Amino acid sequence: MTSQVSSPAGQADEANDADQAGETVLRGQRTPHAEKAGVGEKEIRRLDRVIIRFAGDSGDGMQLTGDRFTSETASFGNDLSTLPNFPAEIRAPAGTLPGVSSFQLHFADHDILTPGDAPNVLVAMNPAALRANIGDVPRGAEIIVNTDEFTKRPMAKVGYETSPLEDGSLQAYNVHPVPLTTLTIEALKEFGLSRKEAERSKNMFALGLLSWMYHRPTDGTEAFLRAKFAKKPQIAEANVAAFRAGWNFGETTEDFAVSYEVAPATQTFPTGTYRNITGNLALSYGLIAASRQADLPLYLGSYPITPASDILHELSKHKNFGVRTFQAEDEIAGIGAALGAAFGGSLGVTTTSGPGVALKSETIGLAVSLELPLLIIDIQRGGPSTGLPTKTEQADLLQAMFGRNGEAPVPIVAPKTPADCFDAALDAARIALTYRTPVFLLSDGYLANGSEPWRIPEVDELPDLRVQFASGPNHELADGTEVFWPYKRDQQTLARPWAVPGTPGLEHRIGGIEKQDGTGNISYDPANHDFMVRTRQAKVDGIEVPDVEVDDPSDARTLVLGWGSTYGPITAAVRRLRAEGQSIAQAHLRHLNPFPRNLGEVLERYDKVVVPEMNLGQLATLIRAKYLVDAQSYNQVNGMPFKAEQLATALKEAIDA
After folding, report:
1. pLDDT tens-digit map of 101-126
2. β-pair partners for 46
3. What is the DSSP letter of 246?
4. Of 619, 612, 610, nearest in space to 584 by CA
5. Omega of the bond prior to 307 within 30 degrees of 0, cis?
6. Could you give the CA distance from residue 231 to residue 251 in angstroms, rounded to a whole number?
7. How many CA atoms lie within 13 A of 32 on its CB side?
8. 447 and 418 in contact (C-beta within 8 Å)?
């Protein structure tokens, strides 16, 4: 979904996520789908931001519902951020807490950074969804409950001895009891569907109701449903009917006396064409763009693993751009094929998560020895072992930095937002191609599945990544003979030449045993090994990366330093503290190996350095070791991203300490 935005760039502070202050007006409403007029006036309240969470059983279609609401919100022009949260099990028992799937969407008329700390609206499709999420819902929030599921057995499954809809436990909330299942079945009577088939459309009824409540466009969703079920037109029309019925229910029922408007974020975005994008999709597009800008075929050797599999799925659709995808039998075969493709002159890529990195480590070491460009995309998830497949974490930093035998340095790049994954992919490709080295790109589950608006760049804005392959001899022997030396280096980058197999006169030996400097012959000489180890390290240390930028408007004494996906929560927390009059500086790292050259000087300017991470302090450990700075860790490893309020509290304590 794309939309045009023509406005100057702007920015607004991220306020309290639970706030719903707004302007109220009265307006007579008519649904675009109603057959009869005569609807009365309903109150319309204008808000600057809303956080909605759809929650239900993993078979209730909550991810699809959230995705459609997000797409319409993006096309409307709001800024947005999403947080899908689904079970680790393929199909947990229906109606149980482990089987709850949710999708949270934060959208606003100004610049926002996170999916929000707490939902203003919770749509609970069953008792399990209510029980699993009620702890996150602030007092006074709206709760829409599917009353048809609140029978004795489903409630007993999750520990409700009495109905929370009747025992007064929800008095602090604005509860809207809606028999979603019954209303959906009634709306679909004319389609001749079985009860079970009709029930499946209740998520579309809920989507229609929420679309009415927040004045979302509807045409895109109807077109989507007809395209999705093009081979089953009866099912398509049934879903459209359920969607319209939900809209009409909101329009006519007395229980929903108020609807809400959130204006487009006209002052947030630079002029351009925008679309909603997830991190994995942005990464896929970034890899394609890198291959085109390098004028090289893109080869992905991969083995499916959550949460990285979407990149394999997406790239497999783009053979017309010279993309070749290979779904290998295991992780080792996947990276082996990608490294072989790099040897053959392609932009080699392998995608995985933490458990796969462990299996790929030997081949990554081989790539370091061969000095070939290779991208290792690690979409981090909870660990150790196979860990929490659908949960996010930042716990692979030290594995990326040191997780190989011998001295095998690898550059590391980390995107900070879903849209930034596109630029990070281009940056990682630049480093790999320029310096002839494998490069780690560390995303995570939060970025991979989350989404936000992304301005589609013009082609002339993209970097030129073209490389020159070796085409002839590059060294003259003492007797005047011209030969090709595969390890004769560029004096500026220390990169060795890239010779495509089959080029006449450029035959050379390749393998994992230590090479002789220049010739590439096998060498067991201690002095040569020492020289080659130090040269490979110097090559990585010499990679040109931009200086780290510091946001410090008030000569603060405390610096909060982050990396990767903590950018949104950290920035939101910093905005809150500054709005309260606190003085705090912020810096965020994209390049983790090598660090920006000015990082040491930046750290020395502050009395306190706080490093929030979704691990037990891995970046803080590196900072303390390299710069001898007493960096303070603030850590979380619960599989969820930080909340802005939580970080703001921790940072204020650090300032006051």
Report:
1. 999 999 999 999 999 999 999 999 99
2. 23, 261
3. H
4. 610
5. yes
6. 32
7. 10
8. yes
For residues 215 and 151, what is the distance between their CA atoms, to the nearest angstrom?
A: 32
Distances, alpha carbon 570 to alpha carbons 104, 108, 547, in Å: 19, 19, 20
> What is the structure's pLDDT at 40?
56
Q: Which two tokens stand for residue 566?
A: 């903590």
Query: Which residues does 192 contact at the CB level (< 8 Å), separation at least 6?
Result: none
Q: How far apart are CA 81 and CA 83, in angstroms?
A: 7
Question: Residue 378: which of 359, 354, 408 has the closest Cα?
Answer: 354
How far, in Å, CA of 56 to CA of 205, rounded?
14
DSSP helix/strand/coil, 271: coil
Whether cis (ω within 30° of 0) applies to the bond prior to 594 is yes
Residue 62 makes CB contacts below 8 A (sequence gap 6+) with 54, 55, 56, 86, 101, 102, 103, 125, 203
Length of the chain equals 657
Q: Supply the DSSP symbol for 60.
A: S
DSSP H or E segment with residue 422: helix 420-435
What is the sign, positive or negative, of the torsion defined by CA atoms of 281, 282, 283, 284? Answer: positive
Could you tell me the strand order of the sheet in which 438-444 lies? 323-327, 298-302, 347-352, 374-380, 438-444, 412-413, 591-593
Contact (Cβ atoms closer than 8 angstroms) between residue 561 and residue 632: no
The neighbour count for residue 6, using CB atoms within 10 Å, is 9
Q: Which residues lie closer than 8 Å to 7 by C-beta, 6 or more apart?
A: 266, 267, 268, 269, 270, 271
Within 214-353, where are the H helices? 219-228, 233-252, 279-294, 309-315, 331-343
**What local confidence, expressed as pLDDT, does residue 588 receive?**
98
Q: What are the DSSP E strand ranges found in 48-135?
A: 49-57, 79-85, 100-108, 121-124
Tell me how many degrees the CA angle 185-134-86 measures, rounded to the nearest 5: 70
Q: Give the separation between CA 486 and CA 469, rounded to whole angstroms.
A: 12
CB 485, CB 475: distance < 8 Å: yes
- For residue 515, the tally of other CB atoms under 10 A from its CB is 24
Q: What is the pLDDT of residues 10-25, one digit of tens each?
A: 334 454 444 444 444 4
pTM above 0.90, yes or no: yes
3-state SS, one letter per residue, for 182-203:
HHHHHHCHHHCCCHHHHHCCHH
pLDDT above 80 (res 226): yes
Burial class (CB in 10 A: 0-12, 13-18, 19+), 104: buried
Residue 372 CA to residue 361 CA, distance in Å, equals: 15
